[in-house]
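ARCHIVE CARD
CATEGORY: sequence design from structure
SOURCE FIELD: tokenized fold
FIELD CONTENT:
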């Protein structure tokens, strides 16, 4: 979504400046083109060189440096036109006040005044300053000017107090940035996604599990929600990123997952079964912790087959689009094609979990899409968020 997008990051001077470095890194990782503009105060916290190194572009600091580093006669207008999205992070009370009142006394505020692109403001300041009526009035003005103001988070502030005023966590900042590039094309669509590995209890402290982190399912849920879908996320892992469009249900075992899925399946349009369901569970779960015996070296746990949730639910299909995953370590395409048929689903997203950068517990995936009567299509290795975006884009264009 961010690939080749022109993002201008305005950094004003507060202790949270260092967090803007993480944002630049994420934007560059997502292949956006990032131009950093720093106010004079911001440069006292972090040098422009650090931002320039991360953004792979010279940082613009004042009208004079911008002019001398550019061929353009009026660089602030050029930068304003170049920008697809302007982010002000951290936004101090000072820069908020200037923008709200049309003051243009440095490159940052001058360019912002000339920029028609969407703007996201991430305020970060001391709680008392945040609550100050003048600051609140200015924030309301930004709202009236159609800027998106992201409320600061609560927690420890630089002054050692606890209160509201911190920048949100990096992942939440990125969610807000992604949102500005997504249209609610899935509004009205109900989606259920399962995520994470199931945990089958042996006793109160031990379980049979697998290496799944839940990242793929969570990415699918987040992107669908950002595109306007209502998402039921049935997950064994809890994820801090939440959208009002996501209803998260926490489960642990395959049986619990199946029960919840059966309940919500009829009211959904799409099922994406990204969970790594344990195929077996212990026949007996001990009520108390199993103690080791000094005379015994070998222990046996009898296992019982779990239901194949996907196979069973697809028998109840009315008009849902059903997607399964296939985690393989060999014969990827034939095994995935077998699962497509046996589980009677509309699509299998197959991945070779033995490959570096693909499958369990990593942030990337290489997916081969298997569909009935179609040739398999392999997508290049990409981040799980990009896989999710590509999948929902495909759904939107070809299925919906
Ligand atoms: N699945 C399921 N219930 C199970 C096992 C798997 O619903 N008991 C789903 C998974 O969520 C996934 C698909 O079936 O969408 C394929 O899962 P995978 O683990 O790749 O294969 P299995 O069906 O378990 O078969 P095998 O372990 O033999 O590869």
């Amino acid at each position: 979504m961010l690939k080749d997008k022109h993002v201008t990051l305005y950094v004003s001077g507060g202790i949270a400046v260092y967090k803007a470095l993480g944002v630049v890194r994420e934007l560059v990782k997502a292949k956006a083109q990032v131009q950093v503009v720093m106010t004079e105060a911001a440069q006292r916290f972090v040098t422009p060189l650090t931002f320039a190194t991360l953004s792979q572009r010279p940082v613009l600091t004042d009208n004079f440096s911008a002019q001398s580093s550019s061929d353009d006669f009026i660089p602030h207008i050029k930068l304003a036109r170049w920008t697809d999205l302007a982010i002000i992070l951290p936004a101090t009370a000072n820069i908020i006040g200037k923008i709200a009142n049309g003051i243009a006394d440095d490159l940052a505020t001058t360019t912002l005044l000339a920029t028609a692109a969407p703007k996201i403001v991430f305020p970060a300041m001391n709680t008392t300053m945040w609550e100050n009526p003048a600051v609140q009035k200015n924030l309301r003005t930004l709202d009236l000017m159609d800027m998106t103001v992201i409320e600061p988070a609560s927690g420890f502030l630089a002054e050692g107090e606890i209160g509201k005023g911190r920048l949100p966590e990096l992942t939440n900042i990125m969610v807000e940035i992604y949102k500005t590039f997504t249209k609610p094309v899935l509004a009205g669509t109900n989606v259920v996604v399962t995520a994470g590995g199931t945990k089958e209890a042996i006793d109160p402290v031990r379980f049979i599990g697998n290496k799944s982190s839940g990242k793929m399912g969570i990415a699918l849920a987040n992107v669908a929600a950002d595109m306007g879908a209502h998402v039921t996320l049935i997950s064994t892992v809890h994820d801090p990123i939440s959208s009002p469009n996501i209803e998260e249900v926490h489960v642990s075992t395959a049986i619990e997952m199946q029960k919840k899925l059966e309940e919500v399946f009829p009211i959904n349009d799409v099922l994406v079964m990204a969970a790594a369901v344990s195929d077996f569970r212990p026949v007996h779960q001990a009520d108390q912790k199993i103690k080791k015996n000094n005379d015994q070296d070998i222990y046996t746990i009898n296992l019982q087959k779990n239901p194949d949730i996907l196979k069973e639910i697809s028998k109840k299909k009315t008009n849902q689009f059903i997607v399964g995953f296939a985690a393989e370590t060999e014969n990827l395409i034939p095994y995935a094609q077998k699962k497509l048929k046996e589980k009677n689903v509309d699509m299998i997203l197959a991945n070779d979990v033995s490959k570096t950068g693909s499958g369990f517990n990593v942030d990337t995936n290489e997916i081969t899409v298997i569909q009935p009567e179609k040739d398999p299509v392999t997508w290049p290795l990409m981040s799980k968020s990009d896989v999710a975006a590509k999948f929902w884009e495909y759904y939107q264009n070809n299925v919906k």
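CARD ANNOTATION: The two ends are 20 Å apart (CA to CA). The chain has a mean pLDDT of 93.
SHELF: design records, drawer C
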